[in-house]
């Protein structure tokens, strides 16, 4: 897909981190940007910077997602690009024993479901609604009606202690990539997923330096945290390269996560 000012993109979780970096990289190529996020102040500021539109969207709420797409399409037209970066995590053991009194508790199911609803169901909700919109478009000269990039995690393949919900949600994103690509193959809509390793996002920027140094040292090469623009570069490549389809790609400096 040739990226220029005739192309529109929706980026979920686009107000910060990986999503914001992707928004900036696509905008630099002329793409019109719609940012879906719950962070109004950051989202509005970035949309203004990029000449795009901010839509306050909760990916777990269907009406909110529908309203977001309606606002985005009115402002910048039907998107040909969707990048799903909205997500979150938690760290709770499946079952654990208290060190204080030996009492046993299990992972609260509402906390498990919350992660699944945001990371997996929310991603699929946005894919389905965006793909339906992309199907109304004429193909570009290279045959593309659209391109979708999802965000999973290396935890989809080597989740750590306490990451049962997070790993399940991200493993689900990986698992649905190929079936969705096959669902949409006759419509000229491509679907790929990135599995980031340890990235220098707002989640980690507030961590103590010794923690960040230890995380950096655990990466085989290069021994540092990933930068959001490196994610954005891969997402852009997946969009631009018309033969990139149905793939799940780790972007992690060759790290394989230890149990903890």
Strand order of the largest sheet: 3-2-1-4-7-8-9
CATH H level, superfamily name: NAD(P)-binding Rossmann-like Domain
User: How many extended strands?
Assistant: 9
Helix fraction, binned, reads 40-55%
Q: Which CATH-level-2 architecture?
A: 3-Layer(aba) Sandwich
Q: What is the H/E order? A: EHEHEHEEEHEHHEHHHE
Strand content: 15-25%
Uncertain segments of ≥5 residues (pLDDT<50)?
none
Task: Please tell me the total number of domains.
Answer: 1
Number of helices: 9
Q: N-to-C terminal Cα separation, in Å?
A: 40 Å
Largest sheet: 7 strands, parallel
Whole-angstrom Rg: 18 Å
Q: How does the overall form come out from the CA principal axes?
A: globular
- CATH fold-level topology: Rossmann fold
Structural class: alpha/beta
Mean pLDDT: 95
CATH classification class: Alpha Beta
């Amino acid at each position: 897909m040739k990226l220029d000012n005739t192309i529109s993109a929706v980026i979920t979780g686009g107000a910060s981190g990986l999503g914001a970096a992707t928004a900036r990289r696509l905008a630099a190529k002329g793409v019109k940007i719609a940012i879906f996020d719950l962070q109004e102040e950051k989202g509005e500021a970035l949309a203004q910077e990029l000449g795009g539109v901010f839509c306050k969207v909760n990916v777990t709420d269907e009406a909110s997602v529908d309203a977001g797409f309606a606002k985005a399409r009115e402002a910048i037209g039907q998107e040909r690009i969707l990048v799903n970066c909205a997500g979150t995590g938690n760290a709770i053991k499946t079952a654990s024993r208290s060190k204080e009194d030996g009492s046993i508790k299990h992972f609260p199911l509402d906390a498990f479901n919350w992660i699944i609803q945001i990371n997996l169901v929310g991603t699929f909700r946005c894919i389905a609604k965006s793909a339906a919109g992309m199907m109304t478009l004429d193909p570009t000269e290279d045959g593309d009606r659209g391109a979708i990039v999802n965000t999973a995690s290396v935890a989809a393949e080597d989740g750590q202690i306490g990451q049962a919900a997070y790993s399940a949600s991200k493993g689900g994103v990986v698992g649905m990539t190929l079936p969705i690509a096959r669902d949409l193959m006759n419509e000229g809509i491509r679907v790929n997923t990135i599995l980031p390793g340890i990235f220098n996002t707002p989640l980690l920027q507030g961590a103590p330096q010794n923690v960040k140094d230890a995380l950096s040292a655990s990466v085989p090469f290069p021994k540092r945290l990933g930068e959001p623009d490196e994610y954005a570069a891969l997402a852009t490549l997946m969009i631009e390269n018309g033969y990139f389809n149905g793939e799940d790609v780790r972007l992690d400096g060759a790290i394989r996560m230890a149990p903890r």
